[in-house]
Amino acid sequence: MTRHLLDHALVRSRLEGRTALVTGAVKRVGRACYRPLRRGVQIVAHNRKALEEETNKTCSEVNECGARYWKVLADVERPEEYEGLIGRAIREAGTLVILINNASIFTPGGLQEVSFPDLTKQVQVPGLPLFSPGSSPGADAAREDREPSRHQDSRARADPHSLVRNLSSLANTLDRLS
Question: What is the DSSP letter of 73?
Fold first, then answer.
């Protein structure tokens, strides 16, 4: 059995106490991302309002592991809710270093039934503005080190090796910044 990357003390020490925003944190890839992070990283769990009960359960799991958590609810299909998500996360947690931009939209039906506008909307979701219009990522942060990390994989795959490589790269970057 392969040990998880975050089981290694060196990686864990580099991420210890950092705050991560995981968008779409309740299901699939988002859940796979937050689960190992909860071993020392503070989590801001994002999901849409319709999944508030599941988001509460996710936050309880994080709390049971001893990590701090916050929840931020916003629907990615509603820009008025989604814009400013980073600023809201920083206001809740006080700081934000890691961004895993995983939120997505699923259109019912098979590929043959998906219209071009639906497909376009799905492709655009990872690029939705996480900041309020006219603001910068650090507008709500007092210090440079409180700005959100530019390290994000908005098209993260469920492949565990890819996740390990991304987390390893993130840990190396955080080490250089420290």
Answer: E
Looking at the whole model, is its pTM more than 0.70?
no
Tell me the per-residue pLDDT of 69-84, one tens digit each, with 9 for 90 and over.
Answer: 888 888 877 877 877 7
Q: With respect to CATH, is domain 5-151 assigned 3.40.190.10?
A: no
